[in-house]
Amino acid sequence: MKRFSRSKEHELVVQAHLKLALAHKELGEDKATRASYQAAVSEFAKRGLKPDASPLAAAAAAEARFRLAEYDFERYDKITLPATTNVKKLKQALQAKLGEAKRSRRSTTR
What we know:
The protein is an all-alpha fold. It is built from four helices and no strands. It is elongated, with a radius of gyration of 18 Å.
């Protein structure tokens, strides 16, 4: 990837990061998957590409951002609310879920 990072083929570089992320996902390498998704999004922004001028790169970056948002949603969805009438426990669980929702929103709007 480093070899082609200075390339003028901007769309291909962004697409390559997405394909690399998908390959890592198939291998079950979550950390590398997330890093490659983030690299696709970052490359698109770093190269100053516009969706109208580079539709393939825009599509790859959008898919990568969507898949990153799915990771955040999975983390949010794992937080369960207890089946209790204890107000203190419910409040604590709701605060955790709200905190995760805020973190997810911040990470997807960057």
